[in-house]
Amino acid sequence: MLLQLLTFLAYSLTATLATSVLNVGSGIYDVTGPAADINFMGYAMMGQVGKGIHFRLRARAFVFESTVPTPPLNDSRLFAFVSVDMGMGSSAVTNRVLELLDAEPTTTGKFTNDNVCISGTHTHSAPAGFLTHTIFQVTSLGFVKQSYNAYANGIAQSIIKAVANMAPGRVFLGQGKVTNANINRSPTAYLYNAQSERDLYPDGNTDKDMTLLKFVNSDTSAPVGMINWYSVHGTAMNNTNKLISGDNKGHASSLFEKDFNPVGTLPGKGKFVGAFAATNLGDVSPNINGSFCMDTGLPCEMEHSTCNGKNEMCTGRGPGKDMFDSTNIIATRQYDAAKEIWNNAKEELVGPIDMRHTWVDMTNLTFKATDGTMKSTCGAAMGYAFAAGTTDGPGMFNFIQGSNTSNPFWNLVSHFLSKPTQKEIDCHHPKPILLNLEGIDFPYPWAAKVVPLQLIRMGRFFMVSVPSELTTMAGRRMRKAIADEVIAQKLTANPVVVIAGLANEYADYTTTFEEYQAQRYEGASTAYGPNELEGFISQFKRLIADMAAGVESQTLPAPPTYLSKQISLAPGVIYDSVADGKHFGDVTVQPPLTAVVGEVVSTVFCSANPR
Ligand code: ZN
Q1: pLDDT digits (tens, 9 = 90+) for 178-227
Q2: Which label site among 159, 214, 225, 298 has the fewest CB atoms less than 10 Å from its CB?
Q3: 285 part of the active site
Q4: According to the model, what pLDDT value does residue 14 have?
Q5: What would the DSSP string read from start to end of 154-199?
Q6: Residue 63 DSSP symbol
């Protein structure tokens, strides 16, 4: 009997291997870009320009293909997910990536907006200037072509490598918790959510869950790649940092990849690729020791995050002795959790793979809300608390209230700001409008109107791509609404839903309607008004219904990238030289001939400007 059982087990294992329905591949490529003189994306702080590299930035790509057609759409299904060490996705970058993929023989005709998701890890220490809407270019003094090209080329190359590595593979789903690696930076806004809803989440005011996909080769069982999603901002490196860095997510990836690539493999050069991707991190900070006043050392006033009424002095603190140490600690806690989840990930996802994509005008959306009433979004606008910033980086946008500033880009464009109409004021209530972004097209639109939304399915795993930073409760509400709709549409009885955050474009933050009433930074940055979250949810319900019915989803045309109109005021390198009698490349301090592991080795040489 025992022998028969063993024979049967051996037979079914062989059968599973022989009928592998998925091809998977992973690829990694450098996206570091200009390493000096260029502003960093995230803190919106003019003086925070690059002066070197902490560690390099990378695009991590994963390609999945179902070899079995998904009825009733009669074709195989191919999909690429890319997690990139950059502030956020950008539809202009995606557009260039697709052009580059089409120009490459091995990927020609394979990828469109429908089957590529590019999600930024939200590091705040990576070059800016790659978004093509005006508001995101103020501190980078406009568009920066070098940043844009580095991201687009690197992302395209990572996908090309992933396609080249594609082989029969198996995908496993794992879930677990990360402890002591995040904190809510707007806890008073979170309390605006109903007690009954908060009671549904015993983890409290941040998500502790990590959802992980594990990829192995079907034939050899060799590890191929890993993606996980866990909520935390890329702000362990603070706004005094001037070294390009992938922050906690990028470092966690390097730690994980080191374990699965041969000893001695240089970072970013191994075949195994592990991504720590962004999700609903809107109000979630890695500065877990809380926020304190820099002058007095006392905790900040909670409601407004101020010290003696001023926000500039209130700053979050990480767990380490400095920001490098804090980055390492927050990365290591995610890495440790991911390792444990990886080891226990035994549930196999075999498909079907399916996907939907749509372009939606978020400035003009009327829809049926969850409570059955009709609701609408508003034209994009930012509230006053947007200028105040967060405890991860106090406000540096205060200058926008002055008429003449030291910022030439702002001086050029600020005259075109429009006054909100009474209708716009009412729509955004109670947000007091500081910047009315609607209807200004000079030099190009100030904010995105039409944004990309995407739904991906692999078995009972569902991922939605959102071009926004959802808060903890906004994310929970969205995941629940999507799971409920997937069940109602009978796609599967037990869905696992993740949100790919900051994906494919950037349209600021999304809070719940209740948190919006608090008008902290995240509510002030919820660009399309109090019903934005419900608007997004209504569109995902539409995509789920289309998927269940097996029909294509309706969409607006892709919006223009405005690339030909971009203004760039960041000066180039005008003059570069070395000291008298020296030449570029001369070594003035040689490194030691021998060193032991752990020792710091230094050398000094004459470099050109690293930009
Ligand atoms: Zn953010």
Answers
A1: 999 999 999 999 999 999 999 999 999 999 999 999 999 999 999 999 99
A2: 298
A3: yes
A4: 37
A5: HHHHHHHHHHHT-EEEEEEEEEEE--SS-EES-HHHHTTS-HHHHT
A6: E
